[in-house]
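Methods: example folding runs. The two proteins below were folded one after another, and each record is reproduced exactly as written to the output file, sequence line first and structure-token line second.
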Amino acid sequence: MSARPEKVDAVVVGAGAAGSLYAARLAQAGKSVVVLEAGPPWEMSDLVSSQIWARRLKWGGPPVEQTSQPRTFGHNSNMGSGYGGAALHHFGTWPRMPADAFRLKSLHGRGLDWPFDYDELRPWYDRIQAEVGISGDAAAEPWRPPGAPYPMPGLQQFAQGRILARGFERLGLPVAPLPAAITTIEFKGRPPCQYDGWCDAGCPIHALANPLATHLLQARDAGAELRPHSTVLALLPGEHERAAGVEYADRQGTRIRQEADLVVLAAAVVQNPRILLNSRGPRWEAGAGNRSGMVGRYLMLDGAGAVYGMFSESTENHLGVSAGQLMHRALYGEREGAPFGSYQWQIGWAMKPNDIFGVAISRPDLFGQPLHDFIRRGSRHLANMVAMVEQTADPANLVELGTGTDRFGTPLPRIVHSFGRDTTSLWQYCAEEGQRVMNAAGAKETWAGRMNGGHPAGGTIMGNDPGTSVADSNGRLHEIPNVVVAGSGLHPATGGASPTFTLLAVAERSADHVIRNWAELSA
């Protein structure tokens, strides 16, 4: 190690959604904070509405090994690189997790329980939505657990949303405006959305609540120091079962020792376990925080797949947002004969001629002139919706260390993952249900795509038992009390709900605990 900057109160690893919130809260509390981000220093002025640009916001780090064939875990598309992380290109779907999902094992005999219930997290959900802003209509969501109403009205509906709502209503299935971290009116100086469907490429007008528009901006204003192109390699062992800080490499490959009283690991679902497992020492023979062998286990991924319908009427599918216009949710046991699990329909995504969830990709079997003809027709008459189906926790799905190394000689992570029968069966049920909706709406043709994966979670789960979990209910490692994990890796169950709102509520609650107990943490 050839550099050793001044010790700080807190070092935050990762400038995504959770890391940005932690950096903001700690800096606002008067702590000296350094944020280490492996990717580039994106600014709002960098964001460009194009498919090529959108791909630059995805994972830009070293490769991740996978053992499963086919590869079920879409790491590169689900992760981010640079300031904002994956939340820079996320679609802003922000539902609350179903209350039952917090007690999944106790109530349904599947998966794992959270270490606290929904009522514990409810005020933190309310606090985040009041600060960041969510559009929607809480009264129209029969599946929504109790909480404050949304601070903004729901997203605008276009023809695609109205057509698909007709299909759901004819089947007796309720829909509601999709709860989105997207402005529909001016909100705290941010303008309303212009509905051009470029969320995947970031949002340069601040309508979508990504970290550059919210917590990372707050962190900077409060004095946090951001260091881009800084790849954290491992935790540094300290005295008395504590960490002394982190070792990282800068863009030139210089290894740097950054000491801190508190380490916040917010490098997302795959990289957090990798850092812990690569942190070896006399007291960390199996990796930091891993005496139980739980680091990396219970990796989860929602099964995600689209259903399509071609209509004679214009669907205006170029208008709207990437998340969709409407939502329908089905919770545990609500569908007679359905496989176990919770799922959500995101209805009426804005579509481009090609690329992610575009017109062309809906028919990968077409080539040449038939594809050209299909795109011409589909660009005006195609409608789509996407089902996100829950995967319950399984210890066999995990992040471990692979055989390859990055350019700094640090072992790469390897993902071992499969969806299993429950998830694939639930997706097949949704594919059939979605086509029934399309037919009820008046589609002339319907078909379903294949299931992919989204919304990674687990790998560093929290729980009350140090023998079966990695962190406690506040995200602190059971074995290293001055290391806090942040992000959806803490979640023992997902409820089939998009995770960003929940991970921010958890981070808000945990950051509050850290600040109130700072003397103990920094002792």
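Second run, written to the same file directly after the first:
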Amino acid sequence: MKATLLWCGLILSARHLLAESPAPAPATHVSQSGLDLDAIDKTASPCVDFYQYACGNWLKENPIPPDKATWGRFDELEERNLQQLRLIAEESAAHQERSAIDQKIGAFYASCMDEAGIEKRGLDPLRPGLERIAKIKSKPELSAEIAWLHQHGSEALFAFHVSPDLTKSTMYLAELDQGGLGLPDRDYYVKTDAKSEEIRQQYLAHMARMFELTGAAAPEAQRKAAAVMKLETALAQISMDNVSRRNPQLLFHKYKLDDTAKLTSAIDLKKFFALVGAPAFTELNVDVPAFFEGFDKLIAATPLAELKDYLEWSYISANADLLAKAIVEETFDFYGKTLTGAVQLPPRWKRCVEATDAQLGEALGQKFVEKTFGQEGKQRTLELVAQIERAMAADIDSLPWMSDETKKQALIKLKAVTNKIGYPNKWRDYSPVTVMNGDYFGNHGRAEDFEFKRQLAKIGKPVDRAEWDMTPPTVNAYYDPQQNNINFPAGILQPPFYSNHADAAVNAGGIGSVIGHELTHGFDDEGRQFDAGGNLRDWWREQDAEAFKTREECIVNEYAAFSPVPGLHLNGELTLGENTADNGGLRLAFMALMNGLAMEGQPSTKLDGYSTEQRFFLGFGQVWCQNSREEELRMAAQTDTHSPPAFRVNGSVSNMPQFSQAFGCKEGDPMFAEPPKACRVW
């Protein structure tokens, strides 16, 4: 239910960069404004292709590293962040006696880096789980085994988690959802084009190789792989598509606990809930009831041996990254090379830093914040948020298509938005997690078990609105519609998004557009369905809702015409929320900048040969400079709610008349934006 900006990157000083990371080309033009002047392609016209103009030379000089599917400004930032986190982890590993946090971080990272020990143990960590599955004698035993798998990192067959009640957002509610697929999305199983069929065959071959690597003879491995593919395809066929899942109204079906038996008799859900350790509860949300109705028939029709093959695969794939080199490399060959186009497995230290962040994120994040994040950055961000909130209030108040009644409700919601900047006020306590040197599989499992239990313990309790869904080093941001808050981890509050050395226009185009993006999510096609308290409630007058949908349809059609690779177009409905937020966020950041300069009596000035308005748009465009592999673009077009960077930039600026004015674009230019051609919601 989170509407998030899926960006990658972080910042570090240059002295921490190691030889393994591509070094940026030395600057040949000194910037007064904070723009990357060397990135600009002066041979391109900003009115024809602004993305090429803003980023063209950067794209040419920054090829994708072999271990990446993409390489962009955010990836540069993430690399520098990983270097900082590596130093923290290595220092903690060397001084585990220094503190409880150092012991947790250090032992976890060191155990992950112990390749020789992991290789020596081979399949031993996996065998107890595989033996459990092998011992299943009847379908009634499945409930217990599926519960065990869910406790050990595998969401076999379906998902069980916790989230705020959609109509009572102050309380946590248990939630059942569809799941159980090994490919990125249901469409990979059901689409009939040649590329989808090719990927299915490659997935089948991958599963067979993995079964062989974990002990099956070749013919048996192929049989098992075919059985898994058959079952996963059937699960996909009863799953809701990803566009429909963007509508929260379609994912809310509250059930009494006793009524869950009517959903499926194949799995004893009451027994499952008890065995996974959920506290007692009387009601839950079932996101997709039709999935469980179909699921019931599917389990009944599938032979027990094939169900066991599926459970075995679910357990193997969930733990593949924790095992010996051959299994890790085979996993990367499919999920890395085939699906994203990455050529080379990332170095071990990167994978271990990322694993430490994933499993002990607020422990590692606490050390990160101590070293990198100052109070000044937090205060400046809050000031910019306030400026953009004022701009959004003025924008809402001036909308010609919205009635006063709906405007009043929108302004109440905007005023209720809370802002979380940098890091949690209270750090997570990892003391229950036992972390030992030389036991990576066990450490990972115990950390996952801790988090699984911590989440389940929330059922029936008040929502903790101070909790974060991202770790502090994350270069990302998100709006939570059920809590009506915007969240900016410390990782994103650094260059290229924000710098004390950049001028106001460049910072507004960078971090300002991010802030505006997140605020706009509160009023996109999903966010607008939640009220100021985060409850799923229709607060719109009917004619205003229809006017909103008409404006959204313009954006749907515009982005559906974009083609990231030949023969493949974006899904305008899938990316609608993010495109709306990109467009609205850029407009709000521009309004805030201009309002601020006007209040201070500062006229538009030239720096580096560009006006204030031009620097704003270049600041926005340049944070999105990114090269992407074709495989990654294909996968993203099917699964990602975000458009590729080139279309996020060109799609947004071509809808802003202020951009056309800033760069002197004329009617007929691709980037020319004047009503009625330009799309605008907010």
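Comment on the second run: The beta strands are 3-5, 70-72, 158-165, 168-178, 254-256, 283-286, 418-422, 477-480, 485-489, 626-628.
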